[in-house]
Amino acid sequence: MAAAAQEPVIDCDNAMAQFELNACAYKDYERADAAMNAQWKVTAARMKERDRELDRSTDNRPGFFDTLLAAQRAWLTYRDQHCASEGYAMRGGSAEPMVISGCQTQLTEARTAQLKSLIEEY
Fold it and tell me: Strand, coil or helix: what is 61?
């Protein structure tokens, strides 16, 4: 019974059916999302370190981490809504999930690079 419930193994290098293409595009997105989450942990930790270095007697603006967190939350909303909009090019079609996942992968990879660049030394 458990073997029947397992998902079929899909060869993404040779995917041809739309359900395979959709699944492979989603796997790419999951990989990109995992990389971004790993970079988020590093970047967030560095921003918290920078906050500890702030002289609050002369600077009462929001800290590095608070602004990063607000930006990330806004970015997640932007990514998901933008990619849903891009997916509407195939609205209701079997390729819509692939278009959405591809968009999410592209934007997530770009965001990972942005998060990394925030903590690079000048």
Answer: coil
- Give the per-residue pLDDT at 3: 55
- Three-state SS string over 67-111 comes to HHHHHHHHHHHHHHHHHHHHHHHHCCCCCHHHHHHHHHHHHHHHH
If one compares 13 and 121, the residue with the highest pLDDT of the two is: 13
Cα distance between residue 101 and residue 108, in whole Å = 10
Three-class secondary structure of residue 59 per DSSP: coil
CA nearest neighbour of 67 among 91, 35, 43, 87 = 43
Answer whether 25's CB lies under 8 Å from 105's CB: yes
Measured between alpha carbons, how far is 28 from 1 in angstroms, rounded to an integer?
29
